Each structure stands twice: as structure tokens, then as C-alpha cells.
Amino acid sequence: MAEESRNQDAKPCAPQVDIDYQELDDLIFQRSGGDKENLIMILQAISKRYNYLPLPALRYLSAKLGVSMSGIYEIVTFYSMFCLEPRGRNIISVCLGTACHVRGAERIKQSVEDYLGIKAGETTADFKFTLETVRCIGCCSLGPVVVIDEKYHGGMTSDKMLNTLKEMAN
Ligand code: FES
């Protein structure tokens, strides 16, 4: 019983990330010449590969480029596009900017939350989905807009969103 109550608040464990250091070398050197001036570009490439910035990858990057970890953290924490926490394999971003909001974006967000059982900013326990919200992504005329894994979906509705999620879940 004590064991059960101790585990009630336990958060899902993030899946272990296996860093392929050969691949990481490619990200660091082939695309940017391993130049510390291109640090942001390199961080973007690592983030794109893992959907977040794994600590072992940052330590490796620090050693390879000769940039301190505090220097890397300074950049990572400055730009909102970078995330240090593991995120799901699929990133769903619902735009809640004004134009999308008046066209029902809040309802779409709610339907995603209900379907996945998470709130905006959270990741499902199986690390399949992360739900995020954004404020205007510059294509208001297509609103409401949802970005799923970097692909823009305009004219979104709750029904379309749920169908898309069901397809992705299979
Ligand atoms: S308000 Fe959603 S794209 Fe501009």
C-alpha cells in the first residue's frame, strides 16, 4: 500500500536516448564545419534529430567545440525553440494567436487535450505526443492553424484534428 501511494505522483520515465556519436559528429562537423560560430545551427540540428537537446549530446558538443557548458546553456535558455526536457516523437503545436483564436483554436486545443489526456505543454506517458501552443506563426489567413511535426495544417477543425490524431496513433 505504501508502495502504491509513493508511486501515485510518479512521472512517466523518459525513454533512454541512445546517442549515436558518429551521427552526432556528422551533425556537428559536416553541416557546420564544427565551427563554434555556428553553435546555434548545430544546436538546431541536434534538437531536430532528438526533438530536444539531450544532456550527453550537449556535453559532447561542449568538448568537441571547446565551448563551456555554461556558454551552451546561455544560448539554449535564451531561445524558446530549444528544449532541455524530452519531448514526444510527434510535436503538435496549436496556434492560439488572435486570428486563430477567433476561428476556434481553443476548441481544437481542448479536443487534443481530451483525446491525449494531457494539457498543453505536456507529453504523453508513452512519449508519442507533445502538445504545445504558439502565438501566431504568420499564416493567419489559413487559421486556425496547427503545426504537426513541422507541417502546417490550415483550416483545422476539431473533427479533422481528431481524425489526424487517430491516424497517427495507429
Ligand atoms: S494567429 Fe494563428 S497564424 Fe496568426
Q: What's the CATH superfamily of the largest domain, by name?
A: Glutaredoxin
Low-pLDDT parts are 1-10
Write the H/E string, N to C: HHHHHEHHEEEH
Global Rg: 18 Å
| CATH topology type of the largest domain | Glutaredoxin
How many helices in DSSP terms? Answer: 8
Oligomer: single chain
Percent strand equals: 5-15%
By CATH reckoning, the class of the largest domain would read Alpha Beta
The strands making up the biggest β-sheet line up spatially as 2-1-3-4
CATH architecture of the largest domain: 3-Layer(aba) Sandwich
CA-CA gap between termini: 36 Å
> What class do helices, strands and sheet pairing give?
alpha+beta
**Helical residue percent band:** 40-55%
- Shape annotation: elongated
What is the residue-averaged pLDDT? 88
- Ligands and ions found: FE2/S2 (inorganic) cluster
**Main beta sheet strand tally, sense and closure:** 4 strands, mixed
Cofactor: [2Fe-2S] cluster
Keywords: 2Fe-2S, Iron, Iron-sulfur, Metal-binding
Pfam families: 2Fe-2S_thioredx
GO molecular function: 2 iron, 2 sulfur cluster binding; metal ion binding; oxidoreductase activity
Tell me about this structure:
The N terminus is likely disordered. It is elongated and about 50 Å long. Helices cover 46% and strands 11% of the residues. The chain has two domains: 58 residues, no CATH class; 80 residues, Glutaredoxin (3-Layer(aba) Sandwich), CATH 3.40.30.10. The protein is α+β, with helices and mostly antiparallel strands and 170 residues long. A four-stranded mixed β-sheet has the order 2-1-3-4, with helices on one face. Helix 7 packs parallel to helix 8. The protein has eight helices and four strands, in the order αααααβααβββα. The chain binds FE2/S2 (inorganic) cluster.
